[in-house]
Amino acid sequence: MMEYIGATGSPIEFDAVPIQPGIDFHFILGFAIDADSSGTPLNGEFKPYWADTLSPESISSLKAQHGPSVKVMASLSGWSLGGKVLRWTRPNNQSLWISNAASSLRSLIATYHLDGVDVDYENFGRGKGDIESFAFCIGELIAQLKRENSISVASIAPFHTTVAPYAALFRRYGGLVDYVNYQFYTDKVRNPVAYLAAFRLRAGQFGKEKLLPSYEVSGRGIQGDGFFDALAARILNENLVSLY
Ligand SMILES: *[C@@H]1O[C@H](CO)[C@@H](O)[C@H](O)[C@H]1NC(C)=O
Q: Entry's Gene3D superfamilies (predicted)?
């Protein structure tokens, strides 16, 4: 289970989310952004922009209360900051970007007791090398943070128009990605059958083992029981396949 939290600016608390014991539960803080407060990029220097109710103290107490099955991650980038759309473009010096990103994230990880990072760049430049550099820089960043045990978990959050850069990342560095939070609600899938078809399509792109079915509460796409019917259909379908 993964829950994006803190992105809207509303003063949300972890306590607002029910946590069932015995399942791995990841809170994903939205967002750590490589930009100053006016949205100007800082060449890999990530800063925390999630709701400040999600403080280092509240994360410590959440973890003390629930133990190791609850993990907290920071999501990188998101759509926009203060009305300015955020966009990945090729850094002038990729090694410098990776090194700045690793050191700024190391410090956020230590301050906020984080277990991992989620990658949620949602807009990309159309220049030469923009997609390639995303795959390389983000892949190397995750590799470095995992190698030095700064993080234990990494996820990525593609949606329909960003499949290409994420597929490029996944092709080269998929072994380091633990979960794929494909944003199914952006596909405007509204019923269980269509949801299942969308899940099959994305499983073909990212593999079914790491792909998590997603749901935007009171938002776009499938709502209410339809989501759970789609999950039941998937389980039924897999059981039938294994019978044959
Ligand atoms: C790029 O950054 C790296 C790491 O900081 C540095 O060693 C290297 O000299 C830089 N390359 C250029 C062309 O500036």
A: Glycosidases
The reply to whether 28 falls in a domain is: yes
pLDDT digits (tens, 9 = 90+) for 171-188: 999 999 999 999 999 988
Any domain includes 27: yes
* Residue 194 within any structural domain of the chain: no
Summarised one tens digit per residue, pLDDT across range 55-95 is 999 999 999 999 999 999 999 999 999 899 999 999 999 99
**Does any domain span residue 119?**
yes
The residues assigned a catalytic role are: 122
Mean predicted confidence (pLDDT) in 17-44: 95
Q: How far is the CA of 73 from the centre of ligand 1 (A)?
A: 29
How many angstroms does the Cα of residue 144 sit away from the middle of ligand 1? 17
